[in-house]
Design brief:
Layout: E1 7-14, E2 25-31, E3 40-44, E4 65-71, E5 74-80
Antiparallel strand pairs: 1-2, 3-5, 4-5
Length: 84
């Protein structure tokens, strides 16, 4: 993205909403500008939530791959985009 992305659709949904319980989160977003090859998405968590050691990113039809890893307090997703 050549400019900061804005997300008109963005949601973070916990698998289990019991306070203090370990859970998985499903994160969905839709960018308002096209995602380019090599774009990076950083999702920073509040200090109360720990980032996963091995996040799983599901590939969607418009991307050739997504490489995910976690750094302290955040998930990093690097996008590979095929020529359409």
């Amino acid at each position: 993205m050549k400019e900061p992305g804005k997300f008109t659709e963005f949601s973070v949904v916990p698998e289990n909403s019991t306070n203090g319980l370990l859970t998985n989160y499903l994160i969905n977003f839709k960018a308002t500008i096209p995602v380019s090859d090599g774009d990076i998405f950083y999702l920073t968590f509040p200090s109360e939530i720990k980032a996963p050691k091995e996040p799983y990113c599901e590939q969607v039809k418009c991307l050739s791959s997504i490489m995910c890893n976690s750094e302290k307090g955040r998930i990093v997703a690097v996008f590979s985009v095929s020529d359409l």
